[in-house]
Amino acid sequence: MTRVRVARILLIVLGVWAAVGGLAVLTIFLLAKPNPDNPVKFADERAVVFMGVTLMAVWCLVGGILQRVVRDPFKRLVRRIPIGWRTKFVLLCIVFALLEEAVTTGLTNLAPVFGGVTEAAKITASKNYLEVVCLHSVVVFVPSFIIWAVILSFFDFAPAEVMLLYGLTGWLMELVTFGPQNWLMIGMWVFVYGLMVYLPACTVPEDRKVRRVRWWYWPITVVVLFFAGVPFVPVVFLIRWLIGYTGP
After folding, report:
1. pLDDT tens across 203-216, in order?
2. Backbone phi, then psi, for 12, in 5-degree steps?
């Protein structure tokens, strides 16, 4: 069985896991009765669940289907742009990361619509989009996008592999940053992060001179990508301090 086939099978399994898990949690919260001792906390938690399920529906399901539908014309269009494929890859990854954060920040701002009561009802660090992308998320992702461009310059990772491995990297980042509850959310996070890099990976030329990928490159790649943004974190904190940012 080829690496690409294995990657595709794993993506299917993780997608099914995300769908089943999301529907199960949604059903539980729809049927659950509010806690009479702390109804506000229950309302906020339920709003977060609704936002998470909506993210899966909008970004992972609809966004994933759209990426698959437009893949070939998108690839032809991008390849006609007269700049290096590595530059295009990194820029496209940033664009898709910005789009994903637009969805999540938009959902956070819609918290009252989902029944949220307090500021705890959110799925992003802030309701301000620029704060989210410049001081929390995308700014830290950029080094890993650059690392991917370097890796793809030497090895023949297929788009499905790029999606799977970056998705696993994102899941690990969520797990380390936000806690062990993310163990069971692996399916969702693989698609949330993986779809940031899937279409950009499809635009990478197949005829570039690269080496064959071995199976054990997969875990090494995930580890390298996971630590790619670590050196940049102190820079982000320095920027926050210089501009007087006091948010989370």
Report:
1. 999 999 999 999 99
2. -65, -45
What whole-number distance in Å separates Cα of residue 223 and Cα of residue 135? 23
What's the confidence (pLDDT) of residue 130? 92
| Cβ neighbours, 10 Å, residue 188 | 27
pLDDT for position 238 = 85
3-state secondary structure the chain: CCHHHHHHHHHHHHHHHHHHHHHHHHHHHHHCCCCCCCHHHHHHHHHHHHHHHHHHHHHHHHHHHHHHHHHHHHHHHHHCCCCCHHHHHHHHHHHHHHHHHHHHHHHHHCHHHHCCCCCCCCCCCCCCHHHHHHHCCHHHHHHHHHHHHHHHHHECCCHHHHHHHHHHHHHHHHHHHHCHHHHHHHHHHHHHHHHHHHHHHHCCCCCCCCECCCCCHHHHHHHHHHHHCHHHHHHHHHHHHHHCCCCC
Contact (Cβ atoms closer than 8 angstroms) between residue 211 and residue 155:
yes
Cross-strand bridge partners of residue 155: 211
Please give the structure tokens belonging to residue 77.
């269009």
- pLDDT greater than 80 at residue 65: yes
* Mean predicted lDDT score pLDDT of the chain: 93
Give the dihedral sign, CA 206/207/208/211.
positive
